[in-house]
Q: What sequence folds into this?
C-alpha cells in the first residue's frame, strides 16, 4: 500500500471519528477505518476495564465469525491472558518508550520458556475463527493503557509485515485522539442534559425526549405518560436545617424516583428544577405508570424531614382528549399535580380519571402557599 493511500486512509479514519455523534459510532468508525487502512477483513476495538481485570470488546467490524456480534454486550477476556496490555508493554511505556504494535500469525508458536506467555491465546483465536494473521496495536490515552486495536486478515491472504505493524501504531494514535474527542463531547452532552445535584436528566433533556415521544405516539400510537412530582416541604427544610440538608433531601428523592422509574422500561427520570421532578415513559400502559406513581408517593412519604410528594399523571392511555403538542401533555400532568398538592393527596392524581381528589381524613384542601410559583402555567 502506497504512502499516499495510507495517508488518505488515516485522514478518512480521523474524519469519520470526528463526525460520529455517539460513542458507538466513534468506535465503529475507528474499527472500520483501521480495517480498511490495513487491508484487513476484520477489526475490533477493546477497552481495558482495570476494575474488573478484563479486556472488553466494544465493537467488531467486518467479516464476523460465528458468535461474534457488532456491538457485543458481554464479550470480554481476562486481562491476565493478555499481559502485554496490562503489564509487559506498560513496563516499556513507564520507561519512556512508545507502545508498538505487533503481528501474530495462525502458525505462531506457543509461548516459549522465559518469554511473555500470551502468543498462544492470539494464535488459538485466529485458528478458531478462520483467520490467518492479526496485528495488535495498544491504544494509549492520557498517558495510560486504554485498550487495543485488533485487525485481522483471512487465511490465505498476505501476512502482516513489520511496516504494517508500524502503520498500525500510527493508526492507534489517531484512534486514541478520536476517542479523547468523543469523551469530551460526551461529557459536554452529559453536562448539558444532566442535573448536577441529582444526576438525573434535566429540563432540556425532558423537552427533547417528550417531543420525540409525542411524535412516536402520532406515528404508531405508542402510549406516552408523564408523571410530574413536587417535593413537599423543601422550603421548610431549607429554612430550618439549611440548604445543604435540603439538597440531600432532593438527592434522596431523586434516587427514589430513579429506583421506582426503573420498573418502567426506558423511563426517563428527571429534575425539572427546584423541587419539581418528572418521569417520562413511552410504551408501558398507563395502569403500570400509575402503579409506579402510587409507589413513589408511598415511599416519598417515608423520607426523613420531607413531607411527601404531590404527584400528577397524564397519559395518552387515558381519556385526555387530543394531543396537539407535547406541551399539552405537560400541562395536563402539571394541572393534576397541582390538584394533588392543593388537596394534600396521598396518591397520584390522574388526568382523565379522577373527577375528584382523594384527601387525607379530616383535612380540608390546602390553599396555595403564598408565593408558590407554577412553572408550567401558561403552556398551551
A:
Amino acid at each position: 500500500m502506497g504512502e499516499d493511500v495510507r495517508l488518505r486512509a488515516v485522514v478518512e479514519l480521523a474524519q469519520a471519528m470526528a463526525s460520529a455523534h455517539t460513542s458507538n459510532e466513534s468506535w465503529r468508525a475507528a474499527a472500520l477505518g483501521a480495517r480498511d487502512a490495513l487491508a484487513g477483513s476484520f477489526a475490533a476495538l477493546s477497552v481495558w476495564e482495570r476494575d474488573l481485570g478484563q479486556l472488553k470488546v466494544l465493537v467488531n467490524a467486518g467479516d464476523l465469525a460465528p458468535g461474534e456480534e457488532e456491538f457485543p454486550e458481554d464479550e470480554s477476556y481476562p486481562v491476565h491472558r493478555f499481559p502485554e496490555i496490562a503489564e509487559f508493554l506498560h513496563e516499556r511505556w513507564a520507561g519512556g518508550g512508545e507502545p508498538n504494535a505487533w503481528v501474530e500469525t495462525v502458525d505462531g508458536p506457543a509461548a516459549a520458556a522465559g518469554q511473555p506467555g500470551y502468543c498462544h491465546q492470539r494464535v488459538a483465536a485466529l485458528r478458531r475463527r478462520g483467520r490467518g494473521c492479526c496485528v495488535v496495536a495498544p491504544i494509549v490515552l492520557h498517558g495510560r493503557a486504554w485498550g487495543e486495536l485488533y485487525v485481522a486478515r483471512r487465511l490465505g491472504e498476505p501476512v502482516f509485515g513489520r511496516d504494517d505493524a508500524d502503520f498500525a501504531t500510527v493508526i492507534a494514535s489517531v484512534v486514541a485522539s478520536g476517542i479523547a474527542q468523543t469523551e469530551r463531547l460526551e461529557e459536554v452532552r452529559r453536562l448539558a442534559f444532566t442535573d448536577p445535584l441529582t444526576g438525573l436528566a434535566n429540563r432540556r433533556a425532558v423537552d427533547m425526549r417528550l417531543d420525540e415521544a409525542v411524535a412516536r405516539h402520532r406515528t404508531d400510537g405508542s402510549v406516552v405518560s408523564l408523571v410530574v412530582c413536587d417535593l413537599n416541604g423543601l422550603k421548610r427544610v431549607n429554612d430550618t436545617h439549611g440548604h445543604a440538608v435540603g439538597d440531600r433531601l432532593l438527592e434522596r428523592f431523586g434516587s427514589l424516583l430513579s429506583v421506582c422509574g426503573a420498573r418502567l422500561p426506558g423511563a426517563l427520570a428527571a429534575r425539572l428544577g427546584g423541587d419539581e421532578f418528572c418521569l417520562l415513559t413511552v410504551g408501558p400502559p398507563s395502569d403500570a405508570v400509575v402503579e409506579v406513581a402510587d409507589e413513589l408517593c408511598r415511599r416519598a412519604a417515608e423520607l426523613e424531614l420531607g413531607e411527601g410528594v404531590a404527584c400528577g399523571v397524564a397519559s395518552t392511555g387515558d381519556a385526555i382528549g387530543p394531543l396537539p403538542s407535547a406541551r399539552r401533555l405537560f400541562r395536563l400532568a402539571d394541572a393534576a399535580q397541582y390538584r394533588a398538592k392543593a388537596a394534600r393527596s396521598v396518591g397520584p392524581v390522574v388526568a382523565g380519571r379522577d373527577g375528584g381528589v382523594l384527601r387525607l381524613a379530616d383535612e380540608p384542601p390546602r390553599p396555595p402557599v403564598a408565593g408558590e410559583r407554577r412553572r408550567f402555567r401558561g403552556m398551551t
Summary: The longest strand covers residues 131-141. The chain is about 45% helix and 20% strand. Confidence is low (pLDDT under 50) at residues 110-119, 356-380.
